[in-house]
Amino acid sequence: MTGFMPALDEMRELVDRHARPDMSTAIEGIQLCRFTHPNASAAGMSGTVLAVIAQGGKRLALGERLYDYGPGEYLIASADLPVTGHVLDTGQPTLGFGMTLTPSALAELLLEADPRDLPTTPRTASPGIAVSTASPLLLDAIVRLLRLLEQPADRKILAPMVKREILWYLVRGEQGAAIRQLGLADSGLAHINRAVRQIRENYATAFRVEDLAEIAGMSVSAFHRSFHTVTGMSPIQFQKRIRLQEARLLLASRPSDITGVGLSVGYDSPSQFSRGYRRMFGTPPSKDTQLRTPSAELVTALP
């Protein structure tokens, strides 16, 4: 731990100085967060991201899987997954760094890398979310990227280089197998991500698992195994979570149209919608106090 404390201290100061309410920064694909108080659980899509905690902590739930990460730890989401998360009560503000991971940037890096410098990438899919301890090299690169927020004359040229360096440390790190699969068009993760996108873009429509398996280029049995490995749930459970998360977002602006919202996300009846909503959020849609918060706060923030 002592090896990266100076970098972590500087990262904390830089995140605290530059974090905005909307988490945006002057560097494309980089987000910073500052949460001053623990918050209620919020549901949303993870995106494909690197999230690093400088201070405080967060907990993320994917199906029945829980992921806690704190200072000096990073979380990787290598698929766009329906997650629920909240800020942990550590007695201090939670400060975090996030970077969007794009398959094209990873693919370009992998094409230029010497395969001998990379561990073997398995063809089977890896879990879509993982947590590890950040190396001193990774934290140092993040700090140098954050310094560029105060160096506008250097930022345009140097920021892409440092982001590329961060990716390199990730593909060489403990979660490198999952990261590399995100950049490989023929990896098991890439096949599952095609099915994930199909469900995500057509969440209100019923599907046949056989059709999803065909989209992924797998047998039905292999598809079921790989889908559960990546997402922690079955395709039907995955679709239900997305439907209910979308419903909650819609209800934030249409709280009196419970029946209409339920039908719009694919439920056949108000009673079926209310039962599913209660199971996921612990309260029926008519009594969900979270719907009185701004809609942006209903989406899980990564970092």
UniProtKB/TrEMBL annotation:
Residues 193-291 form the HTH araC/xylS-type domain. InterPro entries: Homeodomain-like_sf (IPR009057), HTH_AraC (IPR018060), HTH_AraC-typ_CS (IPR018062), Tscrpt_reg_HTH_AraC_N (IPR009594). It comes from the Bacteria. Transmembrane segments: none annotated. GO terms for molecular function: DNA-binding transcription factor activity; sequence-specific DNA binding. The keyword NADP does not apply. The keyword 4Fe-4S does not apply. Keywords: DNA-binding, Transcription, Transcription regulation. SUPFAM superfamilies: Homeodomain-like (SSF46689). Residues 282-303 are annotated as: Disordered. PROSITE patterns: HTH_ARAC_FAMILY_1 (PS00041), HTH_ARAC_FAMILY_2 (PS01124). It holds the Pfam family HTH_18. This is AraC family transcriptional regulator.
